[in-house]
Amino acid sequence: ILNVEQSPQSLHVQEGDSTNFTCSFPSSNFYALHWYRWETAKSPEALFVMTLNGDEKKKGRISATLNTKEGYSYLYIKGSQPEDSATYLCAFEPGGGADGLTFGKGTHLIIQP
Amino acid sequence: NAGVTQTPKFQVLKTGQSMTLQCAQDMNHNSMYWYRQDPGMGLRLIYYSASEGTTDKGEVPNGYNVSRLNKREFSLRLESAAPSQTSVYFCASSVTGRGTEAFFGQGTRLTVV
Questions:
Q1: What is the pLDDT of residue B1?
Q2: Chain B residue closest in CA terms to A50
């Protein structure tokens, strides 16, 4: 069983502040690292899929970095807004023939007005 | 644009009953997946299908069977439901399953009493 850890488990941030959280994953047999955003009563939606060491992706105020050699990824949110409140999931995709993702437990982000 | 459609949205079963969860996608994706979500756990892969006609076990396959009926549809069957199968089930699909984002259905909340 692959170990994908996310920290912190939950986070309260004031509106307008910037924040970041971490995903750690196995540094061997790596193919891709995914980030998903999961709002309450909805289904997870993809933010980024990163495959190369050193990758940086950006979508609006949200960005992510990837270090495959040490097995971690950071997700950054700049100038948090109430609509950023959600659970953010990372998922490890292994190399080799196996398909499917191994998800972390998520970081639950609450933006306080 | 329906994306990934799951039925039913809610279901209550008695221990020992059987049922099939249906999933269909209209995005011409090759790979399809079934995950379960339990409190305090990440999404866990039950079964996946990398292409029409193939299925493989994921992390937690015991007590489940799947059928990839055609490219669009991937069903999950519980032959004899147990209380431990009380969970929220998500179907997902992706173009190839290799470094491509997953699209999720709205989930099925299943309670086994």
A1: 65
A2: B99
